[in-house]
């Protein structure tokens, strides 16, 4: 038996010598490799340089009646180089994996993803020169698939979203690659105490606003890493801000949080790409957040379209889910006579979903009627009253 990169005896022979009562010699395991370390240093430099080249993302205002004394902001993560909130996550995951020695030259990085994370990870894989494979549901939007391939990645489809995890791990084992596993590592790869994470950025940008400490931050959950980062930062900095996580249909997060059930699950995938999961993901941290809302998919789409009418920007369904919840919170503040600010996220651009959330044909095929939800938003913005949609 031999072990590459070791000197002296192997673990097996050490055990045998111990059993025989033999005199032991020093075992010195040296896995350093000058060529690998040079590659690693250059890979880390390239990923860090990407962050250094990027300006901060904008904080956009959503117009509300001045008399309310409430400001609503959207943190526009669609302006990242790969066009979504997941660019931050992918950068953190790559640095984490590189510094742990998990990514190796020439070996593929493999990820289970419903789209946007895979787009961003394909970008960073190409940046450091390793292959990338995205394991995704077959229903993932064609535009996201095109973007993954544009950045040099390969799409590997599964019919059952619950099979993504197992298939990703199997692919990594077969190829000698690394399964990135965003759903496990998202909450730990990002420095939640600062280092220009998304929460620190929000508070810096609000410094000169009339309500610099928001009453609420609304963050949707896919991995759960963003909501965990924001909530931890808020607690660490002792802010009085509350954290709300909206959850779409066909996701188990709301039920798991409500009932304290870490084994909650759903038997079908979310129609709102990027958020909602069929299982309680390891990166979702229920104890860190203050409130959850179950948001109908039709409400998410109605809010997407309301955003376009209000500020002229198309956004994805996850943005609509967050915006719907933010508007409901604002209606409660209006009813209570409270003033303050609310922040939510513009997660990715709507041009990735023109054939879905902006297609009346797709809505009809899905049996989604957004008219009652559009009416709720219109009534709120006109009168300040929140009237629950009726069929």
UniProtKB/TrEMBL annotation:
<comment type="function">
    <text>A cysteine desulfhydrase that generates hydrogen sulfide, H(2)S. The H(2)S produced by this enzyme modulates the balance between respiration and glycolysis, and contributes to redox homeostasis. Probably eliminates toxic levels of Cys (which can induce oxidative stress).</text>
</comment>
<keyword id="KW-0663">Pyridoxal phosphate</keyword>
<feature type="modified residue" description="N6-(pyridoxal phosphate)lysine">
    <location>
        <position position="86"/>
    </location>
</feature>
<dbReference type="GO" id="GO:0005737">
    <property type="term" value="C:cytoplasm"/>
</dbReference>
<comment type="similarity">
    <text>Belongs to the cysteine synthase/cystathionine beta-synthase family. Cds1 subfamily.</text>
</comment>
<comment type="function">
    <text>A cysteine desulfhydrase that generates hydrogen sulfide, H(2)S. The H(2)S produced by this enzyme stimulates respiration in M.tuberculosis, mediated primarily via cytochrome bd with a lesser contribution from cytochrome bc1/aa3. H(2)S modulates the balance between respiration and glycolysis, and also contributes to redox homeostasis. Probably eliminates toxic levels of Cys (which can induce oxidative stress).</text>
</comment>
<dbReference type="GO" id="GO:0030170">
    <property type="term" value="F:pyridoxal phosphate binding"/>
</dbReference>
<dbReference type="InterPro" id="IPR050214">
    <property type="entry name" value="Cys_Synth/Cystath_Beta-Synth"/>
</dbReference>
<protein>
    <recommendedName>
        <fullName>L-cysteine desulfhydrase Cds1</fullName>
        <ecNumber>4.4.1.1</ecNumber>
    </recommendedName>
</protein>
<keyword id="KW-0963">Cytoplasm</keyword>
<dbReference type="InterPro" id="IPR036052">
    <property type="entry name" value="TrpB-like_PALP_sf"/>
</dbReference>
<dbReference type="GO" id="GO:0019450">
    <property type="term" value="P:L-cysteine catabolic process to pyruvate"/>
</dbReference>
<dbReference type="Pfam" id="PF00291">
    <property type="entry name" value="PALP"/>
</dbReference>
<dbReference type="GO" id="GO:0016829">
    <property type="term" value="F:lyase activity"/>
</dbReference>
<dbReference type="InterPro" id="IPR047586">
    <property type="entry name" value="Cds1"/>
</dbReference>
<keyword id="KW-0456">Lyase</keyword>
<dbReference type="InterPro" id="IPR001926">
    <property type="entry name" value="TrpB-like_PALP"/>
</dbReference>
